[in-house]
Amino acid sequence: MNFGTTEILLIVAVLFLLFGASRLPQLAKSIGQSRKAFKEGLREAEDESAAEKKGISANPAAPQISQMSDEEVMAEMRRRTETKSST
After folding, report:
1. Alpha helix positions (H), 1-87
2. How many CB atoms lie under 10 A from the CB of residue 70?
3. Which domain holds residue 49?
4. What is the pLDDT of residues 33-73, one digit of tens each?
5. Domain tally, the chain
């Protein structure tokens, strides 16, 4: 969607009429801050996603409970509880 010079001038004129010359700089500043916050949020989400992928692949495979004795099951439950509480 390409805008020509005439269309851009018309849009700017309508903005001046709607908001006034004193309000436009504030409007532009708030739009810029919103854009910056949005990009920062996307970057944080990507970092969290990468950290989750890294954490999931680093965990060893969980042992099958049917192949474990009662003592081993209790030890595994304690280990998981300690891991959860330390995080």
Report:
1. 5-19, 24-58, 70-86
2. 7
3. 5-86
4. 999 999 999 999 998 888 888 876 555 566 666 777 888 88
5. 1
